[in-house]
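Re: the multi-chain job from yesterday

Posting the exact lines I submitted so nobody has to dig through the queue logs.
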Amino acid sequence: MQTINERPSPDTKPRVDSLVDVLPFNDRIPRHDGEVAFDQAWEIRAFAMTVALHERLGFPWEEFQAELIGAIERWEAAQSDLEQWSYYERWLAALEELARSKGWVTGEELDARTREILDQPSTIDHHHAVRDPVAIVPAGQGA
Amino acid sequence: MTSTQQKIQPVEGLAKHSDEELAARAKAMESILVEKGIIGTDAIDYMSSVYENEVGPQLGAQVVAKAWTDPEFKARLLADATEACKELGFSGMQGEEMTALENTPDVHHLVVCTLCSCYPWPVLGLPPNWYKYPAYRARAVRDPRGVMKEFGLDLPESVEVRVWDSSAELRYFVLPMRPEGTEGWTEEQLAGLVTRDSMIGVGDVRHPEG
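And the result, structure tokens for all chains:
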């Protein structure tokens, strides 16, 4: 049975923090009050996917670390303005390389699926505005 | 600069990619990995919950604090939340409409997306994982008081509870009641009392100590 308000166990965060600590260009990781922070939902999904893959499949974290260094180097080699890179864009590039080298996905699969997703209207699931409450529990009927 | 490949360049391409493209690539990766059974959505959800409070610029708290201190802003917020939020410089709203629901001593609002996970992004940042769980989506409608109790919110019986269905076109968030004992507080101090859960309606705001 799924609990709705599940929180991660207290030992998880220090473990994830320590994975982040060993990543290259650590000072470039976006932070908010000292904590790892994200501006976009996809950034946290890419982050969480990578950590979850590492923990569930047990590949050494150094492999992702190396891919991330490579992804940042490739960017720097091609750019004149070295300050313009985005940490999580490079992160996603590194994750894609890792996934390809592990044989989890091919570049073609990823391109095709990305195209499908971009072609879907963003409101496909749940389009219409619902302007009235879907349920009302009147006063005096508290459980 | 020349490129050796002409097809749609993946992230590895060196052009600047839009967040829409990057979001689609991340989603594509996740859906393929999950489909192949390499990783479960639950495992990814779990890891994303570690830092979930650090997502987004926490704008909702500012909106609520301003409404608590500025009656004219509050009136505009309740009349048209999308426009009122734009006043505070929030962008990223792709045409969807937002509505703020004001809690009163007599009526408490709870927000759910019954079909998926429609959520007032620009104001509340990333939805918590439980927001998209079937357990929340169904039970928030059937037993809203029970759900709120699980989150530690036990409302008096004299309060009516209204449940609102967020959709892609119209997203709701709750304007909670200003806690007592905060007279003379600045907007910034007040914003520190506003919790994400209070703006979804499952939780209370923080109360001043003492």
